[in-house]
Amino acid sequence: MVGSDRTAPEFLPAAEAAARVLAVVHESDLQPEGELPVDRELARLDTVLDQFRLVHPQAYLMLRDLLVRIRTRLDHTVEEDWLPTHGDMKYDQLIHHDGAFSVIDFDYCGMAEASYDLGKFCAHLVPSQPKGWEDSYAAEEARRIFLSTYMDMRPDTSLQRFQAYEAINLANRAMTLMWGQMSGWEWAAETMLTLALERLNTPLR
Question: Is the model's pLDDT at 1 over the cut of 90?
Fold first, then answer.
């Protein structure tokens, strides 16, 4: 399984492999029964606002503002095509062996907008507590490779909601950090929410 060491030699190739797998899945004729609407993702974040207000007021204000901005962005974009979707694509869903990669865990497979998988994968590339600049640089490089590979394989796909999905998943990571209460979680959660706002306002291309 690909681990969390962003500087490991298999990490960047894993990002390319993930993009290729998702492009194939999104172009496939699979017809999974479940649906993965964006409203469900936002509703889950709504439910943790009060928890943040109690344990980290600054993060509460940041998340509240972020949710407003995400909804505004979604209101001003047309829904993307719904496609077969892995549903939980992260770097640790890939197994590396002898230079080849296999994708596991299709338990959350469903129909969703194309950006659902892409936003989740990119959001989980970011290290919550980087050991140094090398970790952050490797994460950004993996994101660049992942997105460029996917868009090369599916050049006509609409990803106009990608920024919103990436921001949602970065906010989900802040939520997980709050629940985990590990040392330094407050700073890490703020970092995720700050990056979410930045990603939301940055053009994809």
Answer: no
Q: For residues 88 and 106, give the distance between their C-alpha atoms in angstroms, rounded to a whole number.
A: 8
Please state the domain extents for the chain.
Answer: 11-200
Do 22 and 89 touch, CB atoms closer than 8 A? yes
Task: Please give the Cα distance from 31 to 1 (Å, whole number).
Answer: 27
The answer to whether domain 11-200 has CATH 2.60.220.30 is no
**What span, in angstroms and rounded, lies between the C-alpha atoms of 127 and 7?**
11
Residue pLDDT, tens place only, 17-67: 999 999 999 999 988 989 999 999 999 999 999 999 999 999 999 999 999
Distance CA 159, CA 70 (A): 15
Token duo for residue 201:
């306002």
Amino acid at 179: W
